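Please decode residue identities from the backbone states below.
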């Protein structure tokens, strides 16, 4: 079994036997075939945050009893492969709901009997990490059912860049995964709800530009190379069977239009959800940080290359919001006070926990202004919790992890400073935080670390999954659907990398106020 990248290894027609005992699967594969590729083909759950280039260390498996990176392992002999427990959909705190209906909107759910006999619609949000959906009663706006799953594209990378690289000239592989997953989720939701598919009159789908391209089986090369301008513009309304290639539903699908290559339909949907709100910044805080400043008729937007650190990616003990992930961190009398998702023993640390931890490090002198750990940190890493069930025996945070956060923090803050400078005038009256990370973060920690400017104090409000909320609103409101294209086309995008302020801002915002 080769574990280093084997230059010149050729896949032959000769076969070797691969056994996955915990999955109950055995198969014969060609000699020299990559193990991560096999795992992907079998649709087994295994994270590969870096997309399989050997950088993140998250795709570890046991091969004949020894730990190996599956992306750097090639089948040269008969093997038995054990895949460690991954974040299951059941144990993952996937965000479905927002803070609820706005005043006067869709709050009368009516009776179940009426709902079961009513016309219905389905709203779907395709995230890079998760996919969620709701079955909505058109007459009342009530929710009849929902689903929430991890995106089955995760073995291909944690961020959009990894997915783009897989889909440069042919998106069919990832498109087949996502369309099959959503179609199955919709079919199961309809069956479990006891309604008939003929009652579904519309589906509305929101997602970032990359996820939307992949859904529609559009090559992603234009999204991955300068000048990063989309070359495929799709009709907003399409037929379900044309996208999903099944007869599960016979209705129209509204696909939220994107603003740019990296400010997607999920932000258009978020704007839709906010309706008549004005003078605000909407921040969708995730793997790809998207920012929009709306004031009157002006819309200034940008995307920050925050990377996956806010969702636990590229962090040694990092994870998404899964059971056992440390989500709240405090430090009292020299001891770490932790809260975990599901109140389970600590197994990892997710984005909100990382942000809290960084705020502690800033406040209590564990790091200097450059982000370098001080002599208060022993052996170059901070041990948050012991857990003998883990291979490492503990959940910890390193200098390298800190630098990953520092880059993400600076990218986000720099984007904010630039869109405020372009808009001019006063700071916004409100700052809405959307997305899983944005919903769960402690605003005080964001202010302490400098991810948000201190002038935002008292103005920050978490609004949950605004992308899904906007999709629900578009299901219910014909005028909202009619205005989607104008909404998307009204945005003035700022290319951060080309902006004259960016380099100075990025360097300045790498520092901490200690």
């Amino acid at each position: 079994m080769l574990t280093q990248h084997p230059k010149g290894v050729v896949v032959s027609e000769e076969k070797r036997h691969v056994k996955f005992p915990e999955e109950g699967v055995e198969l014969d594969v060609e000699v020299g075939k990559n193990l991560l590729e096999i795992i992907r083909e079998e649709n087994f759950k295994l994270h590969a945050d870096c997309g399989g280039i050997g950088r993140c260390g998250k795709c570890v498996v046991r091969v004949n009893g020894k730990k190996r990176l599956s992306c750097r392992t090639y089948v040269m002999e008969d093997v038995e492969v054990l895949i460690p427990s991954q974040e299951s959909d059941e144990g993952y705190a996937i965000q479905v709901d927002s803070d609820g209906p706005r005043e006067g909107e869709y709050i009368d759910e009516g009776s179940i009997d009426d709902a079961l006999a009513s016309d219905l619609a389905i709203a779907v949000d395709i995230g890079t990490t998760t996919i969620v959906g709701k079955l909505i009663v058109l007459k009342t706006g009530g929710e009849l059912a929902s689903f929430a799953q991890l995106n089955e594209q995760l073995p291909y990378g944690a961020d959009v860049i990894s997915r783009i690289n897989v889909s440069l000239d042919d998106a069919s592989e990832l498109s087949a995964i996502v369309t099959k997953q959503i179609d199955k989720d919709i079919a199961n939701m309809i069956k479990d709800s006891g309604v008939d598919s003929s009652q579904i009159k519309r589906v509305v789908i929101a997602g970032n530009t990359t996820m939307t391209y992949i859904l529609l089986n559009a090559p992603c090369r234009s999204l991955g190379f300068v000048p990063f301008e989309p070359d495929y513009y799709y009709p907003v309304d399409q037929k379900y069977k044309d996208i999903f290639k099944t007869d599960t539903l016979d209705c129209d699908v509204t696909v939220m239009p994107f603003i740019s290559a990296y400010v997607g339909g999920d932000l258009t949907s978020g704007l839709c959800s906010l309706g008549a709100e004005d003078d605000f910044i909407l921040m969708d805080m995730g793997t790809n940080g998207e920012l929009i400043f709306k004031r009157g008729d002006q819309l200034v937007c940008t995307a920050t290359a925050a990377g996956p650190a806010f969702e636990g990616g590229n962090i040694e003990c990092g994870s998404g919001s899964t059971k056992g992930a440390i989500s709240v961190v405090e430090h009292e009398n020299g001891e770490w006070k932790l809260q975990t998702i599901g109140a389970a023993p600590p197994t990892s640390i997710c984005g909100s926990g990382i942000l809290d931890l960084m705020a502690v490090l800033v406040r209590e002198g564990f790091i200097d202004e450059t982000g370098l750990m001080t002599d208060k940190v022993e052996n170059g890493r901070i041990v948050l919790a012991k857990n003998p069930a883990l291979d490492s025996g503990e959940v910890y945070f390193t200098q390298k992890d800190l630098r990953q956060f520092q880059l993400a923090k600076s990218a986000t803050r720099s984007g904010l400073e630039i869109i405020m400078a372009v808009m001019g005038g006063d700071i916004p009256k409100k700052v809405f935080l959307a997305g899983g990370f944005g919903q769960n973060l402690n605003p005080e920690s964001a202010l302490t670390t400098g991810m948000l400017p201190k002038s935002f104090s008292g103005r920050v409000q978490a609004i949950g999954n605004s992308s899904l909320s906007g999709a629900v609103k578009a299901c219910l409101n014909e005028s909202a659907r009619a205005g989607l294209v104008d909404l998307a086309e009204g945005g003035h995008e700022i290319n951060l990398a080309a902006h004259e302020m960016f380099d100075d801002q990025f360097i300045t915002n790498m520092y901490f106020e200690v």
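Observation: Confidence is low (pLDDT under 50) at residues 1-5, 98-110.
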